[in-house]
Amino acid sequence: MSTLENTTPAVYLSEVGFVFDQGEERVLEIPSWEVARSERVFLQGESGSGKSTLLSILSGMFVPSSGQVSVLGTELSALSTRERDRFRAGNIGFVFQQFNLIPYLSVLDNILLAAQFGEIADVSSRARAEELLIKVNLEVELHGRPAGQLSIGQQQRVAIVRALINSPELLLVDEPTSALDHRNRDSFLNLLTEILDESGCAMVFVSHDPEIGNYFENKLTMLDLNKAVKAV
Amino acid sequence: MKMLSALTNVALQSLRYRWGGVLLTVAAVALSVFVLLGVEHVRQEAKSGFASTVSGVDLIVGARTGEINLLLLSIFRIGNATTNVEWGTVEEIEDLEKVAWLVPITLGDSHKNFRVVGTTQDFFERYQYGRKQPLVFDKGSQFEALQDVVLGSRAATELAYQLGDSLVLSHGMADTSFTHHDELPFNVVGILERSGTPIDNALFVSLEAIDAIHDDEKGGPHEEHEESHKGHEDHDEHESHDDHDEHEAHEHEESHKSHEDHDEHESQDDHDERGAHDDHEGHNHGPIGTVTALLVGLESPAFALQVQRSINEYQGEALLAILPGVALAQLWELIGGVESTLRGISILVFISSIFGLNAMLLASMRERRREVFVLRSIGAPSWFILALLLLESLLIVTVGIATALVGLFGAIAAINGFLADQIGVTLSMAIFSEASVIAIGLIYISSVFLSLFPAVQAYRASQNISWS
């Protein structure tokens, strides 16, 4: 699924509502929200504020109960499940809090599997993966090692490479630094910024930690965004 | 194709990662498949082995007993005769119009746990097994002289006898008989080729030799004994008759008379000699001048029922004639019940192992929720998750089946010696019969079918999986 023109926003939400089951209270209610191409947005929110639900909707794993969700110019609710899977694989990169990788697959296999689902896997994928791994300072001898044997910091760097292997136009990042100490956190965020500067990829960075917002120009809270969240 | 390769790689790595649980599951599947295929193979082998133990014999005749008893005694040499057949009766049966040939056999002695069969030279020409395969000599030839003995292949191998070796027979079948016929040692003159039947586990001597080694039991003059078997030799048309029967000139009837005189009893059951026999350790051959059973060939198999009836209605003594094919089928029916039960148990064992496999997959799904989420987030479709679970269970079942087959080959090789010792039958290595191939196919189908349960659960879970 290719994206439309670059003038369309990376993320566009309008009157989006979400309930897990009919009759239950809404967990998400976003009147309007837009993230421009190449824009990096920091979204801060406490537990239960709807961060995970929002990311599930943006990735196409959940379909909103109401409203319009457009990612990279594609109306997600108009796609079938399989089409959303393909769209996600080809256009969106993910970095999670931890347990980012399949622990029993090697570092390279983790990355190449994502390339496989993104339908861009070819003979050059391996070379590109190795190039990116070197760029994130992961030693060559670790490339064939099972991901579960790496430290959390090393796993996060592999996760960045995996997220970028399909050259996505949107990166969804969920609490990637919560398991890292300050030094590693800074190192990770600097690396991420550096790579995004090169790729020009848009990013939605979600965290409960307001301190991380210091790395971003564009920041907002779930309280601002999600009308279903009541301030305590 | 690339996706299939990726799927296989993920499944293999996943199984390797969970090797502890996987190993136990493979062992459970292998064990159950081993039991299932093993029972099936033994059933097939036993059935064909039983059916091919004897062929070309139209009737087996013995003193009245159960049909299966007579079959077991005369062909498998299992059990003992309660009563024997008088020699006069043997001659009368031989004289029946439709009878083409007749081979008497007499049992009761042994050599180092291998049974000794007293018979005539005709035995080696008439006895057939499998698809009318004749007995073939590997070395030497059939017995000619009184002290000649022919060995079955396994008896020769196990006891390491060669042509020209000397051996002594013992009374009865006791493992450690103290009563040996030292006075009449035998020379090995022939060794039969392997037949895969109880023939392999026997030693064959002439009827005259059996009588001669029990001469002492008669308590009478040696002459009487040898006279008693003039009739045998007439029947055998033994060419060397004159060589070892120097005391002929009595008629057969006279030999019986001499028995009766010696016994001083009218009834055979009250025979003094039998009483003397019973005192011997494990000794159970019949009185001298009698035989244990007769193998009978007819002019045409079509006469079998007619001749069977006339023998069963014989007034001279209580006889039983059986059709070997029918008796073998009856014996198989008897064993078939046990075999069906074993098969049922093995199927249950297999099903329980597949449930074990499913339990392992289901349990692993709890810890794999995050893994499923990661796969889904990078674009793996839900069918990939379903296929991953199915492929993992198929790989486990495949390794289990392969392990079971290797185990089965090993077990057959290991058990064949024991089976040959005990029942004279060995199992072939050809385990891929039509039935076992079908069984393996059914194992796969049932594994896939039962694995669908955890796989579909994983599929559904992957569709509803969320960021949280």
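Residues 59-322 of chain B form one domain.
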